[in-house]
Each structure stands twice: as structure tokens, then as C-alpha cells.
Amino acid sequence: MATTHSARPASDAAYDPDVTKLVEAMRSRGAGPLRDLGVEAARQSLESIVRPPGPDMRSVQTLTFPGPHGAVPVRVYRPRSAPEQNTPALIWFHGGGMIMGTLDSFDRLAREVAESTNATVINVGYRLAPEHRYPVAHDEAYAALRWAHENAHDLRLDPDRIGVGGDSAGGGLAAATALRTRNEGGLRIAQQVLVYPGLERRSDRPSMRHFGDSPFLRAEDIDWMKSLYLGDDPSTDDEYGTPLLAADLTNLPPAVVICGHADPLRDGVEQYGRRLQDARVPTAIIRYPGVGHGFFMQTHNFSRARAAMAEVGALVAARFAG
What we know:
38% of the residues lie in helices and 18% in strands. By secondary structure, it is of the alpha/beta class.
């Protein structure tokens, strides 16, 4: 008698063994598209994930600043490895598809980024869609950068070494903030750190076709979340909501652009990185094999994520030092 084996999606073969273990656990729990849950349940699902505590910091301080749409909370992380005064800083925008995520659910990631880069991290609690659609989050991201520059002395920051960064949707906010800062002038960004950034609506690219069924990020959920943030009509999109639409990428700050091989966003992310290079912007494009979308949040589970955090952190720290 022939032995039969349960089939698994071909895209799963691209994962490292420790990633495969989590994927199989997610599939066994019947994890489906986020849109089937709805916004509130999706938010609760993200907030309910229990993660080990992140690295101990010299200090962690929660503040607010007056933004264009009301007060915006920020959490300031100062790692023990950084000097007490005149430190470099990353203004960080968390992920969550523009509809999810809080300073609490991204606390561990902020701590790890601060420790690995030897920089102060200012994590921004921007307003979420669909209650607050584009351009609210973008406006608040740009306002956070302005606030950090205007209050650099009180925050004990070096105003010449303030960068922007983010993961997933937050990476898209960081890219858009860099574009707007160049266009409007008056501020300096030392570097931009784009971790699998959300830069466009769903496009028919090979990575989207091969990995669009990933439990970490599904193609249909990209459509859903982008519509909640940007609206249903792509003809109204601009470069601040959809940075891949930007026609001119010259004179932008140096960039670190990273993604996982099995991320459906991979090809769009890497295209943006190559366009930055073509525009003579110093840009490192790093693709990590064996992982998919969201892996930077999984240092406690994935060995590849731990390596990426150390490597990206060292590169960011070296650029600040230079």
C-alpha cells in the first residue's frame, strides 16, 4: 500500500526549520486572513501575543508631543550602550498594516533596535486607520521627526545624527518621511532604515505570486489594509502614501533596506532599494533567506532574526559613527 503524506504549500519549503515550526503551528490553529477577523479582532490578536521582555535600557520614558491631529504619544528608549548625552537617534514607526499596533506590542522590538544600534529609539504611537485615514499617520510621522529636531537638546540627542526607521507599514512611513523632508527642506535625516517596508499597494510580482499565501502576510490582507488606510481608489495615491510612486529618489538619506526571501513584499522592496542606488543614494539591500514577513519581530524564535538584528544594528551604528 502506498504511503500518503499531507501536502503543504510549495512556498513553505523556502523557510528555515525554526520558521517552518511556527508556520505549521499557525496552520494547525486554523489561522486565516486578518480581514475575516475584522479590525478590532485583528488588533486584539496582535496585542495578545506574549513576547519575552526585551533588553534592559538605561531609561524608558513615555511622552507626548502636539501633532497636527492632536497629541501623539512616543516612547523614548535609551540603551545602556549609548552615551548619556548627544546620542544618535532613530525615529521609529511600528508595523501593523496601518491598522494595528501600539507602543506596547512593539516594545520588545524598540528595545532590541536601540540596543543593536547603540542609538536612542523614539517609537511613535501614530493614529491608525480606518478611524484615521491617510494622510493622518504620515503627518504624524513627519511631525515626530520635527519634534525630535526641535527638542534635541532636551532629549539629549545629536541633531546631526537623527534617522528614521520602521518595520512593515512603519517602514513605508519612514520612506515617506524621508521623501517629504527632502521635498520641504529645513531638516536633516542622517539615514533611513527600511525593514520590509510597505511601499505600494499589491502588485503582480513573482514574490507576491509565490508567497502571497503566507500566514505571516497574505495578499488579500494587503489589499484590505491598504484600502482601509489609502481608500479604494488607487488613482488618488501619491508618493507619501505610496512611496514607490515617487519619480525622483535623488538626494535622499543613506538607506538600509532589508527583507526576507519568502516575503510577498520582497520584489517591491528590493526594486525601491535598487532605485535608490541608481539615484546615487548609498543603499545597502539585504535579503535574508529562510524567513518571511515580520521576521524582525521574531528574535526569540528565529535564529535568522537574531543574526539580522545584530548585522543591521551594526551597520546602522557604523553609519551613525561615520
